[in-house]
Amino acid sequence: LVVDISDTTGSSAGTSKKVDSQYIIQTDILSVNLDLDSTPKTIVSAPGSGKMIQPLTITFIYTYGSAPVTSSNYLYISYDSSSTSNYLVRQRDWLKSETADRTYVFGAGEATTGDGTCTASIDNKPLIAYNSVDLEGDGTIKCIVTYQIVVL
């Protein structure tokens, strides 16, 4: 519950109101595999019709194992994993040749592609992490995503 002080119908101090938690900024923590090409990772599920995901930050914490990633690649964060032309974030050579723990923090793209972040409406679209190739190596990845669900 929250108190709306601009609404004094309940009392002179304000009126108690219920807020659905999905409309408040939230953070989820999940594990991510290195096979993001063959198995894209939904980092925030589709929120339902008439709603969209507004990502604030996406953090990947990589814990190095004993074998590095050697492939050239691109990491994408997008609303549509079938596209490498439209995305929120793209990182070239993500984790390539890393032999130590690393942290990557991404925000909303500052240089959106010329054709936009998504070629369709992002109404009820999930937020997905995917890669141009499956990565080798044996490190582990945690994803911390902070976002808000917005009613369209």
Largest β sheet strand count, sense and barrel closure: 4 strands, antiparallel
Helix and strand string, N-terminal first? EEEEEEEEEE
Q: Helix content range of the residues, please?
A: under 10%
Query: What portion of the residues fall into strands of 2 or more residues?
Result: 35-45%
Mean pLDDT: 92
**Gap between N and C termini, in Å?**
23 Å
Low-pLDDT residue spans: none
Radius of gyration using CA atoms only: 19 Å
Helix segment count? 0
- What is the structural class? mainly beta
Outline: elongated
Strand line-up of the largest beta sheet = 3-10-5-8
Overall strand count: 10
Question: How would you characterize the overall build of this protein?
Answer:
By secondary structure, the chain is mainly beta. It has no helices and 10 strands. It has strands spanning 2-4, 15-17, 26-32, 41-44, 51-63, 74-78, 89-92, 102-106, 127-131, 140-151. The strands form 3 sheets. It has a 4-stranded antiparallel beta sheet, with no helix packed on it. A 4-stranded antiparallel beta sheet has the order 4-9-6-7, with no helix packed on it. 22% of the residues are buried.
Question: What layout of secondary structure does this protein have?
Answer:
Layout: E1 2-4, E2 15-17, E3 26-32, E4 41-44, E5 51-63, E6 74-78, E7 89-92, E8 102-106, E9 127-131, E10 140-151
Antiparallel strand pairs: 1-2, 3-10, 4-9, 5-8, 5-10, 6-7, 6-9
